Amino acid sequence: MKLKGLLVKAFIPTKVRITGTLVAYFVLCRRKAWLFYWGIGLERESELVALGRWLSEEAYPKERHEINIDNQIVMDWVDSYNKVIHEVKRSRSAEQAHRWQVKYYLYYLKRKGLDGFRGMLHYPLLRRTEEVHLNEADIEQIERCIEEIARLVQQSKPPVAERKPLCRHCAYFSFCWV
Fold it and tell me: Domain 2-177 is in which class?
């Protein structure tokens, strides 16, 4: 058992790569964030994740999708002229996580010297759009979140599963509860 723990610790990266998806998962469920970070990516088989990707492309077909910066953040699309980051989501069930994902993107761009951006969350099925801004309190919260994520992913085991209302629609449901 000790040997197993040592092997896991040997693979812990010296610098934790924090993505927008990881931030959103951390807000939703720390177990999901840990599993995702360590490459247990069950989203590839998730029909709901595939539906969300399809929705983004179909609802906004003229936009160049999946804007990747430093392999760290992948935004649905960016209007650089108006300085707007756009994220498309299927439902509002994880709205708080969606906001923090966009705020992390804004934070990341700000740290790269790209100031003045704002975010837009699009819920095309609901015909709803929400504007997202980053303020000083958000920056402090994101920096605390980054520290907590770094501590979380350095654990040799995932946190114990906690049943939440979103569990039954989660790509990790069978991993945690079946």
Answer: alpha beta
